[in-house]
Amino acid sequence: MRRDTRAKRIEELAEGAAHCRAFGHHWQHVTHEGGRKKGWAVTMACPTCGTQKLFQLSQRGELTAPRYIYPDNYLAAFYIGPDERAEFRLEALGLAGPVLKVVNGDRPELPMGKGKGLPGRRADER
To answer: Could you tell me if residue 2 is inside a domain?
Structure first.
């Protein structure tokens, strides 16, 4: 039986884990076994983080609840909530920086040209 190794700190998360937790997995078909009579056992894998997804596919295309096999340090021994996922999204796109707060409806100035394909807006463009 495989021993479950969980990250104890955010810095210990496996490569790609933060990206997949922020945006979801990029599943690719690996194998399938079985036949039309009873359905197939399907394995998919995420090349970003290494997670595997195993499920049954019926002859009519219905899925059973999937089972996941995670790489070491994909799972965390600490809570990852909406705030942490939001931070993962910013970091994955290269947009992480100081937290900007909207006060009295005034929008803070955003840095120009950070990230790919995401142009910043100047104050005179609002």
So the answer is: no
CB 49, CB 18: distance < 8 Å: no
Q: What span, in angstroms and rounded, lies between the C-alpha atoms of 114 and 83? A: 21
Average pLDDT over residues 55-68: 93
Q: How far apart are CA 25 and CA 47, in angstroms?
A: 9
Kindly report, residue by residue over 1-57, the tens digit of the pLDDT.
456 689 898 888 888 998 898 899 999 999 999 987 889 999 999 999 999 999 999
Task: State how many domains the chain has.
Answer: 1
Closest C-alpha to 108, from 97, 93, 92, 94: 97
User: For residue 117, what is the DSSP state?
Assistant: S
Residue 4 domain-assigned?
no
